[in-house]
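Closing statement on the pyridoxal-5'-phosphate sub-project.
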Amino acid sequence: MTTPAIALPPELADAARPVVNTLGHWTRVGNICLDDEVIAAMSWAARRYIVIEELQRAASAVIARVTGAEAGCATNGAAGGLLLAIAATRARLDPDRIAAMPGLDEKRELVLFASHRSAYESCLRVAGVELVVVDDAGEDPLAALAPHLGADTAAVFYDAQLACAGAAPPLPAVVEAAHAAGVPVIVDASLAVPPRANLTEPIAAGADLVAYSGGKAIGGPGASGFLAGRADLIASALAQQADGDVYDRLGRQRPPGPVQMGIGRVTKTGKEEIVGMLVALDGYLDSEEPACVCDLGDVEAALRAVPGLQVERVAKGGKDAIAVAVAGLSARELRERLLAGDPAVATVVVADRLLIQSTECMHEGELELLVQGFAQVAAAAS
Ligand SMILES: *Cc1c(COP(=O)(O)O)cnc(C)c1O
């Protein structure tokens, strides 16, 4: 497919320069480069009107097929999905409760294990919940969880990625404990795919709602995502995300006053994102895991040959990464200079170390560009 000529506003010149991505599918560098098929699907959707309600019904069918869940809905990223998931467990299908969100005076607590705390907590609190953190460092984390499951608990929040390394019990055991107390379980599976098995495992383990990113490994647009789970909770999520009056949608007479939309309207998902995400998800199932043009070992070897760089293999969150330093520059200065360079290289600083953590988003020929970018910054600093 040929790309039509685009007249970019001149102000975009800097932002539109090529950037070598060593972060992986991170939002700050635009998540992912889309396949032609996904771009074509988005452009198909862009040229027509589509009844969003019908599109979400189709999304539910695709998501149900892929995850084994009863139902699903397209969301605005996994973070938007988590907001809808918490809102669904709090307000269910009661329009009065939906209209009272996020200040609803019931189901105010979201319970999570300490090892599942993450950078996304503010996004969870948007749904009006207070986070109740349960210590899972002790002998019996399930026993520590039990006293926190009560009438005011909206849900237990479980991070499927952190669960691999953390102390929290496996998902089936947490689901059993939560369900015994009548509390649903929401799983953040944003970073848990690949492996593909994690498209079905949280549902098979009994999770009530599972949030996925469309714009990470699945290959959909960066602002897309989806929820999979129980039909009644998905119906609540959709009622709270939809454009229109929740009383009308749920068949109740609205009290006097203006139309009441749900809290999820702030995370609306456009037709282009929904269609792009569904085509990517469908294609992801029968595609091979894409081969990388190089691996961290290649990057490490190439950078070791560059004068002025200190290169070290390190561990980050259970995975390998390469730490690079230049004498006289802080890690942050090095990151900024690499990003401002030509060629530009995007890296991340963790605990005062500059890291190259992934080659999965590097394209053909970019190892050479990466080396050039580092060599120029090192030469300028010496
Ligand atoms: C990326 C990420 C999110 C947010 O996903 P978006 O699709 O960018 O909204 C949430 N949780 C975890 C663990 C993530 O890695």
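The chain has a mean pLDDT of 95. With this model delivered, the sub-project is considered complete and its resources will be redirected to Aim 3.
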